């Protein structure tokens, strides 16, 4: 999956939690990947930290 606005508010509130639910319900395969583009200069680690805080991994 690829999308624009990966660092934005809508992704944080809607997209990441939805992807998390789909994955844990078994609807996404183990090879599923997300490629996102955002305006903020975040590293992979920065984005992972934000997503972990939202989705409670």
Automatic annotation (TrEMBL):
One of its GO terms (molecular function) is oxidoreductase activity, acting on CH-OH group of donors. This is Glucose-6-phosphate dehydrogenase NAD-binding domain-containing protein. Gene3D superfamilies: NAD(P)-binding Rossmann-like Domain (3.40.50.720). One of its GO terms (biological process) is glucose metabolic process. It comes from the Bacteria. Residues 4-52 form the Glucose-6-phosphate dehydrogenase NAD-binding domain.
């Amino acid at each position: 999956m690829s999308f624009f606005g990966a660092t934005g508010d809508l992704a944080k509130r809607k997209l990441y939690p939805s992807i998390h639910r789909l994955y844990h319900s078994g609807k996404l395969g183990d090879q599923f990947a997300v490629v996102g583009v955002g305006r903020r200069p975040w590293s992979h680690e920065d984005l992972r930290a934000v997503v972990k805080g939202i989705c409670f991994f």
